[in-house]
Amino acid sequence: MTNENNYKKIKVVAVRGLNPRVRAIRFKFIAEKDAKDFAFAPGSFIMVSVPGYGESPLTVTTSASQLPEFEIAVRTAGNNTTALNRLKVGETAYVRGPLGHIIDMDTIYGRELLLIGGGIGLAPLRSIIQTISENPQTVSKLTIIHGAKTPEELIFKDELVKWKSFADVHSVVDKGDEDWEGETGNILKSLEKIEIATNANVIVCGPPVMYKPIVEALHKKRVKKENILLMLERKMHCGIGKCQHCTCGDKYVCIDGPTFKYSDIENNWEALS
User: Fold this and answer.
1) CA 22, CA 155: separation in Å to the nearest integer?
2) What is the residue range of 201's domain?
3) Residue 185: which pLDDT band, with cuts at 50, 70 and 90?
4) What is the mean pLDDT of residues 101-110?
């Protein structure tokens, strides 16, 4: 883990649109030493800032093997995310972290894994998918469910097709258009269709409103609650447990998470609301 207050300068090397509101921004560390000190792993997060606009908690969406370059997905929501989405190739920003707790990939090795991403919630899961794509034997079976309101709002559309070479991929939208050939309905409908081992690992990321029904559906499939990981979408500000923005019960999302075992928070109503 790097120094939580050590800002590192990064430069934009590529930008692409994922949907009308979300852009993928690829950065490269300007200093080689900073890249070597950047101990990112799936599950942790970073704070990215544009001077004069603040900073935002975001997740690296690429695997660690791609350093000294890394990518983030940014949805315009406030001053800093707006500033980030205005950046052009060659312009600079700053990053601190990684922060939070990583996902222990050793606990996943050799077992079945189900990833469920609602909307932009697929972005934090992408680093896990890319890590597994580099060594598909990491898991015995990989299933990915990605849901959005419309086909236009799906992200990483081109990669969803490529991932089918090593994973069972389900793309589902609330309402399709005349060109949509995928599943229609919601994530729960897709989840009901799949078979999953009772000892499988599941990682879920998306709007908090989706967590309880998904956990209930997984319980019906007899998935162990300690094997269900939830990436909480809770507003973080400082990233180091000082500002109180992300408290939920006795937990701080930024320092105790942002990924939690369901068994550790099942009675924490603030965490799941």
Assistant:
1) 8
2) 105-231
3) confident
4) 84
Q: How far is CA 137 from CA 66, 164, 228, in A?
A: 19, 15, 21
State which amino acid sits at residue 61.
T
Could you report the per-residue pLDDT of 229-242, keeping only the tens digit for each?
Answer: 998 876 777 777 78
SS3 per-residue string spanning 252-273: EHHHHCCEEEHHHHCCCCCCCC
71 and 142 both lie in a single domain: no
Torsion angles phi and psi, residue 235, rounded to 5: -60, 120
How many helices (DSSP H) and strands (DSSP E) are in the chain? 8, 15
The answer to whether residue 236 sits within a structural domain is: no
Q: Output phi, psi for 80, to 5 deg.
A: -70, -40
* Boundary-marking domain end, from 99, 127, 157: 99
CATH of the domain at 83: 2.40.30.10
Quote the pLDDT of residue 5: 63
